[in-house]
Amino acid sequence: MHIIHFDVDAELNKYLKGDTRSDSLQKIDASEDFSQIDAISIKTGSNADKSTLRPFTNLKLLVTRTVGMDHIDLQYCKANGIEVKNILDYGASNIAEHVFALLLSGTRNIIATQPEIQSGTFSFKGHLGMALKGKMLGVIGTGRIGLEVIKLANAFGMKVVAFDVYKNEEARKELGFEYVELLDLAKTSDVITLHVPLLDSTKQMINKSIIKIMRDGVVLINTARGELVDTQALIEHIGKFRWVGLDVLEGEKAFSKDHPLLKFENVVITPHIAFYSDASVKKIAEETERILNESIVQ
């Protein structure tokens, strides 16, 4: 089987075997012959659609080294006999940890204090933190990542409510949270964190009407998909939030220093790195190789 791995950085390159490339599908050399390639692996940097997949005339398998598949034209792949596989879990705990990194960086003023520290001022005044113990955490999406977040929240002594169209009653009993409707979660939560895939039903689910019913001083964390949040509505109501921690953005591939959210002191943005740890990179490579090897055996 002839395989090419796209969107590969230096860390992942340590573990993946064969032809690895840092470029995305959009940047492939049009003069190169890909007719003998049986399988490719990609990440969200690549848009797998008719235009980018056309050169791969013999492609049988596309592996995305992600959980989400919204960067892939699944209909086109199905029509052209291309099997699509994703990695369901490469370490949900890594993303859950980043949720709390974003959360604590704001609630305990870790970022806000740095300008004073750098200027030589060492004072607690004006930096009253928000304790997490006893606060209500609203978790939207109780898949693997959402449940890992709940486990950490329990360790902090937080109360937890959750919303999901598919209710995991076994996890609810084990972890001691309650399912509520989305509007009730928005009304009662001190912290809201998003862990759902991007679907037609979830696109811009955090919109003007939902934001309006949230508590004043609420904290919003998004490590899932940027398009879950209506950015314009967030900007218009930014004063509602004590803190906003975003690892993903709407249209993040076009991000620049002029992004409108950068001007707000109560917003921190990280560049889609919640998944990216020493443990997860190794697991991603292992899972990618496993999927490819299973396909070869078949």
TrEMBL record:
InterPro entries: D-isomer_2_OHA_DH_cat_dom, D-isomer_DH_CS, D-isomer_DH_CS1, D-isomer_DH_NAD-bd, D-LDH-like, NAD(P)-bd_dom_sf. Pfam families: 2-Hacid_dh, 2-Hacid_dh_C. The keyword GTP-binding does not apply. It comes from the Bacteria. Transmembrane segments: none annotated. The keyword Ribosomal protein does not apply. Residues 100-274 form the D-isomer specific 2-hydroxyacid dehydrogenase NAD-binding domain. Coiled coil: none annotated. One of its GO terms (molecular function) is D-lactate dehydrogenase (NAD+) activity. Residues 21-288 form the D-isomer specific 2-hydroxyacid dehydrogenase catalytic domain. Keywords: NAD, Oxidoreductase. GO terms for biological process: L-serine biosynthetic process. Gene3D superfamilies: NAD(P)-binding Rossmann-like Domain. Belongs to the D-isomer specific 2-hydroxyacid dehydrogenase family. This is Hydroxyacid dehydrogenase. It comes from Candidatus Roizmanbacteria bacterium CG_4_9_14_0_2_um_filter_39_13.
